[in-house]
């Protein structure tokens, strides 16, 4: 690589926001879904929440910014597994849920993601979730059902906090990983998309910030003043 090319790459990096530099232009969005089964093509999506993150421009640490949450009406013809409903405690027929359609939930979430992503100077969202393949599969399937042409999420790349927590904390269960990270966790409130999303966001930020503190992702060095 020529000196000119190296200089150009350095200049390109220096113009990016600190957020955009951290994950190569990706904007991590923490997601959790509650469903009526394990098959994304046939089983209903019942709850979805997405947490946006923010970065401290002084020290490069991440924290929770804003969470958006919806109860979702099962799509027409959706399968509702009794065992799954018993596990989550969700009653899809309860009118007090204030549920919306998949189309409404996804479009509102995607709109907020694009707004936050643009403000952070990032080009593409990447899903962060606990057992991320599951959540991404349901979001992709719902996006396809709703005929939404452009999702802000990368279609198959994700950050899985199960893997990250196993590496960093020696735990893969969300509750146990939070306990190891000294993050308060209530089993009574668990299995709610809103609660699990925000706890997953706290866990992700804890791991990312700890890695940086250990020197895994140093902040860009400040430019040196020209010498006389």
Question: In this structure, how is the largest beta sheet organized?
Answer: 5 strands, mixed
Find the count of extended strands (DSSP E, 2+ residues).
5
Coarse structural class: alpha/beta
Quaternary class: single chain
Rounded to an integer in angstroms, the radius of gyration calculated over CA atoms is: 20 Å
Secondary-structure element order, N to C: HHEEEHHEHEHHH
Walk me through the structure:
- It is a single chain.
- By secondary structure, the protein is an alpha/beta fold.
- The protein has eight helices and five strands.
- A five-stranded mixed sheet has the order 3-2-1-4-5, sandwiched between helices.
- The radius of gyration is 20 Å and the shape is globular.
- The two termini are 30 Å apart.
- Residues 1-11 have low confidence and may be disordered.
Give the SSE map.
Layout (H helix, E strand, L loop, with lengths): L2 H13 L2 H5 L3 E10 L9 E11 L6 E10 L10 H7 L13 H18 L4 E6 L2 H14 L7 E8 H9 L4 H7 L12 H21 L15
Parallel strand pairs: 1-4, 4-5
Antiparallel strand pairs: 1-2, 2-3
Helix pairs in contact: 6-8
Short key terms for the protein model shown above:
228 residues; alpha/beta; five-stranded mixed sheet; 20% strand; globular
Care to give the gist of this entry?
With 228 residues, this protein is α/β, with parallel strands linked by helices. 41% of the residues lie in helices and 20% in strands.
